[in-house]
Amino acid sequence: MLAAKRSRDISGGGQLTVERDNDKNPVCALREIADSTVELDNLRNALVKGLQKQVEVDVPEDDVMELLASEQEVAGVVQSAADDEDDEPLPEGDGEAADAGAEEKPAEEG
User: Fold this and answer.
1) Other beta carbons within 10 Å of 41
2) Percentage above 70 pLDDT, the chain
3) Residues 21 and 35 sit within 8 Å (Cβ to Cβ)
4) Where does the pLDDT of residue 74 fall: very low under 50, low under 70, confident under 90, or very high at 90 and above?
5) DSSP character at residue 17
6) Residue 25: which residues within 8 A CB-CB, separation 6 or more?
């Protein structure tokens, strides 16, 4: 598998570390591995990374979460602000209309 990966690297433009001697890429890759002219650990890591089907997710630590929460507080974002979004604001003028209707009219003399 390592030789196949190295062969694909060579086909993609990777530099040869041995002389080609009219050999094809898979043979050159095998000769490089046999002569130890390529880093097997790097080749192995690239192979594993290329074959992974599930990407590793970096879960933030508690310290990072606390830092994010404090940054939000500094920025003026409050946790309860999300709860207030559900409340419907009063339409403008409702308070004034109620006050205008509450005014007492002078009693007519007569």
Assistant:
1) 8
2) 65
3) no
4) confident
5) S
6) 7, 10, 11
